[in-house]
Every structure is written in structure tokens, then in C-alpha cells.
Specification:
Layout lengths: L2 H9 L1 H10 L4 H10 L5 E5 L5 H8 L3 E6 L2 H10 L4 E4 L13 E7 L7 H13 L1 E12 L6 E2 L5 E2 L4 H7 L3 E10 L6 E9 L2
Parallel strand pairs: 1-2, 1-4, 2-3, 4-5
Antiparallel strand pairs: 5-9, 6-7, 8-9
Length: 197
């Protein structure tokens, strides 16, 4: 994970948590999760941020744990949702996150904060978290042209979706689409990948 991006999220964690809380609920995302995720399954939210989606997943009967690279965002998540589990982990390696133990993995608009060279490894590690027939929901904000940083210093990497598809070659793609994120209004790419048994 890009160190400057992590530091930015940690330094302004309360501000980002407030911004995300003020956005409309991502009903389009939630509809897709209900459509594709294994009901009631053990679920990891990789890049959970302030914990909103972990809370929603648990409320819908999933046994969800949130993982994030920013200690500041993890503190915000734990304060906002004290009944749920949040732990530190960083893409691409995801050290400390159990392999082969999850029915579902959510990684919503996170991998664009990696360098393009790290994206393939990150995708393979995300698949490694799944049980056979487990489901990965992966999305990222699309950056046109060259990789860039926003005014706060967060990295938004530009990479072709084929880089992700290649890394997911040992899965079955159930969804592969360009979309507009209902909550943020940004252009995103979404993939649902099922780990083969």
C-alpha cells in the first residue's frame, strides 16, 4: 500500500470518516453483495475504512471482520462500531489475514491506492483468502491517463482492467463491469470473482 496514502488517511481519519458518513448509502453496492455473496458467510472487508460496510454486512447476517492499513481509520471504525472486529492489514501481502478461511471478501475502491505493479499480487492475495467457491467482490476507482495524487496526497493509480483479469485467471468471473459509484459519483470498475473448487 502506498505509504503517503496511508499517512494521509491516518492523519485525517476523523475528517474522512465524517465525509463518508455524509455520503448516500451505496445501495447499488449492497444489492450486488446480497446477489453474489454467500449468505451468512464468514466475510472479510479489506480496506474497511471507517467500518460502514462491516456494520452493514453484520446487520445482514454476514460474520464480517474489517481490515485496514490505516490505524487512524481503524480507531474511527472501532469507536463507531464497538461490537465488530477490526484489524490492521495492508495490501498487497495482507500479512496476518487467514488464508482459505473466508466465504466472501469485499475490497471496495482500495486497489487504486497501490502502484500498478502491485495490483496483480494484491488480487492474487485476495483470492487466497477465499475458501473454495468463495466470492471476491473487487472494485476500484478508474483513473484515466497517468497515475496521480489528489490534493491531500492520496495515490490514484491508472491501470487497465486486464491487469486485474489476468491476476484472477484461476477464478470464474460472475461480474465484470464499468459503473458509476452511487455513493461517491466516481467512475469505478467492478468484478465479482468466484474461487474455483
Amino acid at each position: 500500500m502506498d505509504r503517503t496514502t496511508i499517512d494521509t488517511y491516518t492523519r485525517a481519519a476523523q475528517q474522512y470518516a465524517g465525509e463518508w458518513a455524509g455520503q448516500p448509502p451505496p445501495d447499488d453496492l449492497y444489492a450486488l453483495l446480497l446477489q453474489y455473496f454467500r449468505p451468512g458467510g464468514v466475510t472479510a472487508d479489506i480496506g474497511c475504512g471507517s467500518g460502514r460496510d462491516v456494520a452493514w454486512l453484520n446487520a445482514k447476517g454476514f460474520l464480517a471482520t474489517g481490515y485496514d492499513a490505516s490505524e487512524g481509520l481503524l480507531a474511527e471504525a472501532a469507536a463507531q462500531y464497538p461490537s465488530y472486529a477490526f484489524q490492521h492489514a495492508e495490501l498487497p501481502e495482507l500479512a496476518g489475514v487467514p488464508r482459505g478461511g473466508f466465504d466472501n471478501v469485499l475490497c471496495e475502491t482500495v486497489i487504486m491506492h497501490l502502484s500498478p505493479e502491485q495490483v496483480g499480487d494484491a488480487c492474487r492475495h485476495l483470492v487466497d483468502l477465499l475458501k473454495p467457491n468463495g466470492v471476491l467482490f473487487l472494485s476500484w476507482r478508474v483513473t484515466e491517463g497517468n497515475s496521480a495524487r489528489d490534493a491531500a496526497g492520496r495515490l490514484y493509480s491508472a491501470f487497465d482492467a486486464q491487469r486485474v483479469r489476468t491476476a484472477l485467471a484461476d477464478t470464474t468471473l460472475a461480474l465484470d463491469e464499468a459503473a458509476t459509484n452511487q455513493s461517491s459519483g466516481k467512475s469505478v470498475h467492478r468484478i465479482v470473482a468466484i474461487r474455483r473448487a
